[in-house]
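Predict the assembly for these two chains.
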Amino acid sequence: MGRYILRRLLQMIPVVIGATFLIYAMNFALPGDPVAALGGERPLPEEQQQQIRDRYNLDDPLPIQYAKYMGNVVQGDLGESLAVRRGSDVSDIIADTWPVTARLAIVAFAFEIVIGIGAGVVAALRRGSFLDNLVRGSTILIVSIPIFVIGLVAQIVFGVRLGWFPVAGTGDGWISYIMPGFVLAAISLAYLSRITRNSLMENLRADYVRTATAKGMTRRRVVGRHALRNSLIPVVTFLAFDLGTLLSGTIVTEGIFNLNGIGGVAFDAIRQQDGTVVVGIVTMFVLIYVFANLAVDILYAALDPRIRYD
Amino acid sequence: MQSRLSGHLRWLLLVAALALVVAACAPEDDPEEDPDDDVEVDDDPDEDEPDEDEPDEEEDPDEEEDPDDEAEAPDGGEFSMYLCEPERLLSQESSEVCGSQVLDVLFTGLVAYDPETSEVVEGGMASSIESDDNVDWTIEIEEGWEFHNGEEVTADNYVDAWNWMADPENEMGNASFLATAGFEGYQEVADGEADEMAGVEVVDDYTIEVSLVEPFGPFELLIGYTGFHPLPDEFYDMEATEFEEAPIGNGPYMMDGEWERGQRIMLERFDDYGGEPANAQAVEMRIYDDVGTAYLDFEAGELDIHDGVPPESRTQALEEYGDRAFDNEVSSYDYLGFPTFVEPFDDPDLRKAISLAIDRESIIDVIFEGARTPATSALPPILPAHRDGACDYCEHDPERAQELYEGTDGIDGTLELYFNSGAGHEEWMESVSLQLEDTLGIDDIEFNSLEFAEYLELHDAQEVEGPYRLGWVTVYPSPQYSMELYLEDSPSNYAGYDDPEFNDLMAEANATEPEEADEIYQEAEDILLEDLPIAPLWYGLDTVVHSERVDNVIANTRTFIEVADVEVVE
């Protein structure tokens, strides 16, 4: 197992390098001049513009620009922002915004695990009951509503009218993250409960469950130890990729709830063609996904003894 | 993982691992997190007590302050206000409203403006700004002003800041204003031939002499602009980006803690302020990404002043909050420009026909919920020189439009319309295209919406082939600034307009005493509106609401709330 993990970690290096180059090249290929847009309708003086182009190597051909950039990255310098926060280090920008996104992701993730899996298990065990129909109906409803509508309704009902939660911002610590976390989790939660339900129902019909029951095991032990554990494989797969999505920031939710997370910065950076920021943040997203992927594979082995990696 | 852990233990480990991650990212209990912690206010600002006897909400900027409001008074209350996220907090760089709103509170420049009439009033640091010929200017500054760190503000603080801004090495955007005014020696500094501007001289601690390359009458109006703020000596000992985290100014409020990006900027009254002391003891500027979210916060009682009520809530706000809501005229201005350098847009009649075909009123009513003022001139209503109806071709007159259009070659093939994407211009552009189709029968219309960086590059390369949307904000209240973008040599002249008579009149007005200059600017405006290289569309209107906790809320023409004037009523 240890050797397997090491091999996987080594495989990440070319992936990350390839990703940075691709993103860099794509940003380079975008039409438009980020420096021209800095002053808005009243451009910066020509001399200032040239100075900026020189300092960010914008006049160099792509390979040279990229080489200079990577040369700094190797030394731990992710470069400076050009437009989003001109003059600030990209590492500072990430350090400022990433914790907000991470907290939001954790709260959303907790909602998903507790409510999503819980509802799925209940629905599967009480097939056709009122509860089952409730879960199935409400999940269909949630999936079909756009997230910003859910967000706005939650804000108006729980924030403005009832005053239970702050409307926006992060001024109240963890409390601030409950509503946005729930809204962010809503859609995934709906999917997750359906995946759990279907997977568990399928496994409950499997031979080994009949065998276990016949051996006189308690229902709880049959479901918890055998059926549920085997049903979790698709659930874990979904969760891991969803965590990647959550951690890479969700622009819509962050926007609605005025959370200064990494999603919004990435969005602005792409719009303003702030190359160093885009590459820095997106590379981080790539890393998160690759790690999430690895975590899933390791979890498979933990969940299903038949899966071996060495 | 060869050893098979028991199931329960494994889950326990997983939960423990998750708990660790949670703990690692938990928000620290920073005292800064809680704005009520470090501000000494007697009354709880979260208390939303309806005030029975509301004073009459008349915005009267000339209202005399109560003399018994001593600077030593420990109290003055605290209020919160809306702020959009600043790009920078550096006066020499900031040209956008979000940053300037903060900087104009942290700093006091040489000149203050009347929030209503835009005229120069008491309150700036200059005691006099004189010139006999509009070329050589002498600025006297008041003695005894201090920066928030205790340094005295002297002539050097101004001159050094201007020279620092002029140096291209520092990449400061507001250096363009040194070029606008024509500071002698600016070009040499820009070209790297000199370290300091030859035309700026410190005579003594309180006197500055500035020589310009050409007469420039609006000098006094310009010199109060954000870009000309002084900098303390301490500024030069650190990186500009470091200074920005908590700028040290000479204004009525000072930073309390650092700029918490995306969240808030806390301000505290500066008790050694050289001018009229501010009313409130502390101000929380809350940063929002979205005006709608801020409005919900206002409705929830979390925000005292919101000066960016979204258009869709404007009608409701004005009805519901009565005299606690008002519209503020601002100088932002949208226009439809024409690429006068390509056919058929070199024909003024075609430009006029298009302008006359646009029904500004109905677009404003339907799309902006009334939150704009139709533009009937090139000079915004906030200027004393503004004349209502100066433009003969800015009304909606389909018949005249058709008549004019028939006399031209018309649009051959596709009419291309241009605007920058993601800024809410799609809807009204759609309306404009429908009106052009209805009135002029142009049915082959194509939209080109581009991100701003790409959009401006297209303009710079003069590759725009049809009417385009752009805007202009008059940042210092002079007709010269409102119309500088139509000058032949202006980098913002995307229409490619070049009229010698217009250029001459502008130069003549710049060389004239401000009192007589307005008339000449208006003559220049007449030429512009007769040629119509751009079709003025509308001026901005900001809707402001405030809670019952605050009073005397005044907004100026740059959309800023006059923070120091706000009174907390409790």
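Chain A touches chain B through 64 residues (CB under 8 Å). The longest helix of chain A spans residues 90-125.
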